[in-house]
Amino acid sequence: MNQAELVNLNKCLHELAIEMGASHYGIADLSRFYAARPKSFEDYGELLTGVSILVPENNALLNGLPMTDDESRTSHYNIKIALTLQIAGRVREVLMEHGFLAEVIKHPPSKSGPTGLLKGAARLAGLGWIGRNRLLITKDYGPRVAPTLVLTNAPFAPTATKIEPFLDSCGSCVRCVQICPSQAFTYEPFDETNSLDGFNTGRCAEIRAIINPTGWGACSLCVQACPFGAVHSDRAPAFHDAFPFLAPVSSESPF
Ligand code: B12
Ligand code: SF4
Ligand code: SF4
Predict the structure, then answer these.
(1) How far apart are the CA of 58 and the centre of ligand 1, in A?
(2) pLDDT of residue 248
(3) Which phi-psi region, left, alpha or beta, contains residue 104 (left: φ > 0; alpha: ψ -120 to 50)?
(4) Cys-Cys link to 50, which of 28, 55, 84, 162 (CB 3.0-4.6 A)?
(5) Quick check: is 252 in a domain?
């Protein structure tokens, strides 16, 4: 396939993803991720072009969390994941029809466990940054996006310049740090060289086991508190009414 055909295929895939309901589409060069964490690619092979696609959250369902019934919480999670997998599956098919190798990142993660690739690829494609809540934050939808990823050997040009993936636009905001009922975050901004620092996943999982024992998704206050893409303000009072036995919101801030 010549360069013009490659550019055209990428454009068609972009349009297809948007038509199917995606909000963002970008291409990441994943060599840096592969060099740092080859185990993340174990289930997929050495496919270092990432087609990163984001689907907007259903705000009506998201804003009801976590005080909704169990069925709503689970359907909130399942609906967004189903759409991401549908779009990624179609993109994969088209790539394969054109003779390329392509794999969709599984959800939930399988053999090798969590890969970190979904957020990392979106960031490396320049679609957003990793916030203090360690979620992928986009300028327009904030963290209210569900990422999906197709790994391929199609040599598409990356959408980000060298500088874009490093941009962190949280500034001095610390809302997510303060609202988290399990105090799972530090005030430190994300650092790629220590990408697992700053978020105690075990604490978040404990909260999730309390409020949502049979379904997917956690309390989601760190999503709702983010000013980027916000369509709802502070949910903390309602949360603490519903779960008075959980830790109070931290009031200490270095800023
Ligand atoms: C396991 C899991 C959890 C666990 C543990 C989280 C964790 N960080 O490991 C628990 C139960 C705590 C959890 C909680 C939640 N989760 Co969760 N979770 C996952 C899951 C299934 C795997 C995550 C994973 O791979 N972890 C491994 C670590 C290493 O990677 P990571 O933290 O995801 O990403 C890091 C790397 O990408 C790295 N990075 C970035 N750039 C670069 C560049 C290089 C070169 C390198 C090496 C690394 C690197 O920085 C990231 C942050 O540390 C994903 C879905 C999936 N299939 O990936 C959803 C997912 C991450 N969760 C999500 C969400 C929304 C939540 C919750 C809000 C609950 C909810 N309502 O669904 C909370 C929020 C907690 C929080 N603030 O992150 C979304 C995130 C959307 C977003 N905008 O970022 C995902 C993508 C699911 C989805 N498709 O919607 N989750
Ligand atoms: S989902 Fe809730 S408990 Fe988990 S990190 Fe976010 S705010 Fe904290
Ligand atoms: S709430 Fe503030 S600190 Fe947290 S991710 Fe959003 S912008 Fe960054």
Answers:
(1) 18
(2) 47
(3) beta
(4) 28
(5) no
Q: Is residue 198 situated within a structural domain?
A: yes
In the structure, which protein residues have their CB atom closer than 6 angstroms to any atom of ligand 3? Answer: 131-133, 137, 170, 173-176, 225-228
The residues with which 51 forms a beta bridge, in sequence order, are 27, 150
Ligand 3 atom 7 nearest Cα: 170
Task: Give the pLDDT of the chain (255 residues) as one tens digit per residue.
Answer: 899 999 999 999 999 999 999 999 999 999 999 999 999 999 898 899 999 999 998 777 677 666 666 666 666 677 788 889 999 999 999 999 999 999 999 877 766 678 999 999 999 999 999 999 999 999 999 999 999 999 999 999 999 876 666 678 899 999 999 999 889 999 999 988 888 889 999 999 888 777 766 655 668 889 988 999 887 545 555 555 655 555 545 545 444
Ligand nearest to the CA of 143: 1
Mutate which of 170, 235, 253 for ligand 3? The one with the most ligand atoms within 8 Å of its CB, which is 170
Q: Which residue in the block uniquely carries the two structure tokens 């895939």?
A: 13
* Ligand lying nearest the CA atom of residue 239: 2
Residue 224 is predicted with a pLDDT of 86
Residues in contact with 247: Cβ distance below 8 Å, sequence separation at least 6, in sequence order: 181, 182, 183
Split into its structural domains, the chain has a count of 1
Bridge partner list, 151 = 50, 103
207 lines ligand 2 (CB under 6 A): yes
Considering the domain boundaries, does residue 255 fall inside one? no
Residue 54's DSSP bridge partners are 24, 147
Q: Whose CA is nearest to atom 8 of ligand 3?
A: 170
Note down the domain range covering 80.
1-245
Report which bound ligand comes closest to the CA of 50: 1
